[in-house]
Every structure is written in structure tokens, then in C-alpha cells.
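tool_call: predict_structure(chain=1)
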Amino acid sequence: MFLLIGILTAAFMEYMLHRYYLHHPNHSHITHHHKIFKDNYEDPNQQIKDIISSPGYIFTSSLLSLIVTIFFLMMNQQTAYWIYIWAIFYLLWLEGIHYLFHSPKKIWIEKTALFQSLKHHHHLHHIHFKINYGIGSTFFDYILRTKLK
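tool_result:
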């Protein structure tokens, strides 16, 4: 249960920040999409700073997950800790696979069906950047109807 709540919390924060903050018309992230798709979506020589989220964005994501966790803290302290731990785990998963999407390293996880499905989902996002906002999960794209069919 803790795992599910933590991951869903972080996935929701990822989706909302990606869709409404990073894709705001005044945000430079839109240029990032065009550059990475135009130059080469999958380039082993891409610099990590062009792929991984900024420290401020990562801090904001983890802080928003912490705010949700505080709600659970009122019910049970141990529950809240586990939910937050799983939310942070999801954020690390998100950054790691996003890096591998754009700068493949030919490691075992890249061969899994889950990774390939998420990579394809994300690649479509770079082509049609008003859909497929989830990077580490497609759940909220399904729920909020932004998944390309």
C-alpha cells in the first residue's frame, strides 16, 4: 500500500509539473524538446545537463511529494515515511530512465518490455509534445486522456 501511494503521488507530481510548468508557453523546456528530437533523440554523447532535471526542479518535485506525505503523517508516522521513501524512489527512477532514453548505455534494463514501452511513450512526446507527459509512468496520461492512442 505504501509503495502504491508513494509512487502514485510522485507520478502525479511529475505529470502535473511536466504538463503545466515545463510546458507553459513561457518556459524554455519547449526548446529542449525540439532540440533533442531535431538533433538526435538517442545520442550516447549527450551531456547529462541536457537530459537530467535541474536541482531546483528535482527539489520542487520532492517537496510537493512531501506536502502530500504530511497528510499521511497525521494518520501514522511510519506510513508517511514509507510513502515518502517510495515517492523519492520514483523520482530517482524517473531521472535514471529519462537519462537512458536519451543517452543509452546498453545495460540490462534497456532491454525490458517496461523500459521499451516507456521509451516509446516518451519518444512520441518529443514528436507531439502536447501528449504523453508521463516519463516514469503512463498512468496519468491514461487517466487524464493525454496518452497518444
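agent: The chain has a mean pLDDT of 84. Proceeding to next step.
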